[in-house]
Amino acid sequence: MTDLRQRMKDLADQVRTHRHRYYVLDQPVVSDAEYDALERELRDLEAAHPDLADPNSPTLRVGAPPVDAFEKRRHAVPMLSLDNAYSESELLEWEARWRKLAPEAEPRYAAELKVDGLSLSLRYEGRRLVEALTRGDGETGELVTENARTVSDIPLLLSEDAPEALTVRGEVFLSRKRWEELNRQRDARGEPRFANPRNAASGTMKLLDSREVAARGLSFLPWQVLWEDRQVVLPDQGAAMAALETWGFSRMPARAAGAMSEMLRFIESQAEARLMLPFDTDGVVLKVLDVAVQQKVGATDRIPRWAIAFKYPATQVTTTVLGITWQVGRSGKLTPVAELEAVEVAGSTVRRATLHNVDELARLGLRIGHRVFIEKGGEVIPKVVALVPGEETRDLPAPVVPETCPVCAGEVGKADDAEVAIRCLNPECPAKLVARLLHFGGRSALDIEGMGEALVEQLVASGRFEQPWEVFTLLADPRSGLAYLSSLDRMAEKSAQNLLDAMEAARVKPLSRWIHALGIPMVGARTAELLAEAYPSLESLWAADEQRLQAVEEVGPKVAAALRAFAALHPDLPTRLAALEVQPAAPAPRDHSGLPLSGEVAVVTGTLPSLSREEAEAWLKRLGAKVTGSVSPKTTLLLAGEKAGSKLAKAESLGIPVRDEAWLRAQGA
């Protein structure tokens, strides 16, 4: 019992410490997932042993006390925390709990993304913003009204159809792009980096100079309305969120309403989709849809019983750097890689993280033995984000930048003075061929199942292949190819035959995939699609000069030059592939004649009222337009929403027509 009491005390101390570092100092030393695990263990122990629970336990409070720099003010209605769920079964248990309190209520819900930022409570009187409070400890927050006024999407005056008095709660956050920009500025000034956008947003809202807050570029998304007289004006959460948009607030980019089965589908759909958003989210919040039921179910002194946060596996965690190695890419680029103490992130075990290049290594000030934050967002490969605060003072061994290629011992250097990366300059470096072959057979290229790293390394080590496409010589004599592959380590005859079958299928894959698979510098999947539409065969593409290539959308002088250089290096490639019976499928011609936007070249920018960027681009394509990613003299229309930024400015300077979502909808689809 003494050991249990001590464990609970230790956990309580840790939770208090981490809350203080997170909410007050904005200098966390553990990830959100690690903190959640500590708090969860403490709550579980307190629930199992209430007689041992400390009446002053940090689990009985929300957040942390407000900092002294701001006036403190009580919330009219406490800003409660949310319970977390990590599985379908926990969501169903939550549903069963609240339904015991309202058995007659229909179990319907509203779901919204859980934005990773700083919670803020905004009070409006006469439809004007009069008060902004941080969460603080849930009962009392910091008065940050002047700072809130600088956030562009916090309305200072609500539209005339809004109630005279109400409170709107939501999340202040920083986009990943602005976070990276701020960190570059802090690097230049020799200041510690923000570990993540959430800490940058929190630190910004607590600055005393609102002019500096304005320069940071914060954003705000609402997630709750409180009525001043406690009389509900709108009947459910969905209606409230829709009304907030009409009153002047930004739209939550993804939300849903329905039964639990629909909520589970929404959670699953957002697991990957949310990673493509320009800001961080860490889960989905489920709320009982009917506000009257919410009021009946009520809350404890810590959490509302009618809401819960489903948390996705952590995308940012802390771990220790055990060493630094160097990878050689298909262009010879040497990339430093952090070898890590194994840690779970985004549902998988991670032991390595990219460091991008030598400059990034220096910027981080990384040493072997440092504890670091690593992150897995939209990228497949985790990356090191920042050092854990305090680590920069430790005297640890510095990584060594190689003077020769770590694979072939060849000369390394930069392709030109403007380049950051260092490269292996040996054209016969086997590591380059390994990387090119992996790309060649990878999912975004020919998607040859079975062509993994272990096999590719053996293929290259054999010396039998000098170019990726030469592996198709194995199909010239299938019996011989099968025998060769079966002789390799961990390649049984069935696996070898499956690989040959996958290669056979790849012979007729779309031309765009073949163009991408060749590994032409600066030609990615999107550019390959555009080139395949313009040139129906490799022969015609190889025959095109730079001027003709630049007539293709999104192909500029550098891409055209890179393509011509690759064709000059492999002039007989189309003929060689034809001899190997490779017959890429040309894209079917698309007849856009008669469609409303036939001939238009469109770009989408900014935040549209009700369409995501992907939805808007798909709509434009259905109407016959070509959609590109950047504004150029070839662009014929710009579809713009709020916060359109530099693309809007460039379009206006070029005299390109600018349209909005209402115009797009008027075109039909």
Task: Write a concise keyword list for the protein shown above.
single chain, 669 residues, alpha+beta, Helix Hairpins, D-amino Acid Aminotransferase, Chain A, domain 1, OB fold (Dihydrolipoamide Acetyltransferase, E2P), 5 domains, five-stranded mixed beta sheet, five-stranded antiparallel beta sheet, 24 helices, 22 strands, 36% helix, 19% strand, globular
Account of the protein in words:
The chain is of the alpha+beta class and 669 residues long. It folds into five domains: 2-60, Helix Hairpins (Orthogonal Bundle), CATH 1.10.287; 72-311, DNA ligase/mRNA capping enzyme (D-amino Acid Aminotransferase, Chain A, domain 1, 2-Layer Sandwich); 316-394, OB fold (Dihydrolipoamide Acetyltransferase, E2P) (Beta Barrel), CATH 2.40.50.140; 430-579, 5' to 3' exonuclease, C-terminal subdomain (DNA polymerase, domain 1); 601-666, BRCT domain (Rossmann fold, 3-Layer(aba) Sandwich), CATH 3.40.50. The chain contains 24 helices and 22 strands. The strands form six sheets. It has a five-stranded mixed beta sheet. Helix 12 packs across helix 13 (453-461) and helix 16 (511-517) packs across helix 17. The longest helix has 24 residues, at 2-25. It is globular, with a radius of gyration of 29 Å.
Taking strands numbered 1, 2, ... along the chain, how are they ordered across the largest sheet? 2-11-10-3-9
- Please tell me the total number of domains: 5
Q: Can you identify the CATH class of the largest domain? A: Alpha Beta
The N- and C-terminal alpha carbons lie at a distance of 69 Å
Largest beta-sheet details: 5 strands, mixed
Give the strand tally.
Answer: 22
Poorly predicted regions: none
CATH architecture of the largest domain: 2-Layer Sandwich
Strand content: 15-25%
Overall helicity: 25-40%
CATH fold topology of the largest domain: D-amino Acid Aminotransferase, Chain A, domain 1
Overall mean pLDDT stands at 88
Specify the overall morphology: globular
* Name of the CATH superfamily of the largest domain: DNA ligase/mRNA capping enzyme
- Rounded to an integer in angstroms, the radius of gyration calculated over CA atoms is 29 Å
The tally of helices reads 24
Secondary structural class: alpha+beta
